[in-house]
């Protein structure tokens, strides 16, 4: 907790309307676009999300801060105070269930994990304005880490397009690659099986051999006490009901390979489908839709 309270103001690049905030060191991600649109939530989710879509120079910064024991309010409060001291006016603020819980989280624009992690049971959101500029802030925690995403829009500014990341040089709009399945399961409790490709509306895998499934099976053999949920996902084309069924079938396709050729006991694997409600990327491009059609492995039991 003292780490949060003792933070000092850090000078930040003059990108768009980026304010100075009491956060230490260099953001894990800094992304700026000379002209784009950011949707600012102006109220809680209630059958739909009220938003203000603001065009201009968009700057996003994400911090991952050591903050053992800190609550999301303890993290947000000094940041809110710093904004107000700099002349920003808070126009909307909410916490988890008051925001709209799951529905709110998946309606707003969030950089995918591991760069930005959002605990669906504990997060806070803030929207602020300063003259024509607008800003959104999202705060959550995972273990001893606090995650802070700040996105600001200045309609009158012009900046060079940049993307900088202390941990991953790829643009934030794209999901992280599969990487080390064992590491992701151990450190994050989940891993994207990114080499499982599905066409829009399809539940069929092209073959029965995939590096990610081999890696998952090897990890499960090395950790025989674990159980895993395979969670299927879709892009946003089609109905919610249809996509829920398709996403579950995609998870079933992966499970069939794991319990068949790869020899994992069926009792150790369950399948779920969440349709288009947990995207990794925006669904407004072919690349984004392809990234969202996926299966993830989630550790659900270690006993």
Fill in the keyword field for this structure.
about 300 residues, alpha+beta, Protein Transport Mog1p, Chain A, 60s Ribosomal Protein L30, Chain: A, 2 domains, 7-stranded antiparallel beta sheet, 4-stranded mixed beta sheet, disordered N terminus
Q: Calculate Rg over CA atoms.
A: 20 Å
Overall average residue pLDDT: 82
Assigned CATH architecture of the largest domain:
3-Layer(aba) Sandwich
End-to-end separation in angstroms reads: 32 Å
**Integer tally of domains:** 2
Question: Which fold name is given in CATH as the topology of the largest domain?
Answer: Protein Transport Mog1p, Chain A
Structure classification: alpha+beta
Number of strands: 11
Beta-strand content bin: 25-35%
Query: Strand arrangement, largest sheet?
Result: 3-4-5-6-2-1-7
Shape: globular
Largest sheet geometry: 7 strands, antiparallel
CATH class assignment of the largest domain? Alpha Beta
Oligomerization state of this entry?
single chain
SSE topology string: HEEHEHHEEEEHEHEHEHE
Q: Low-confidence stretches at least 5 residues in length (pLDDT < 50)? A: 1-16, 167-179
User: What is the helix content?
Assistant: 10-25%
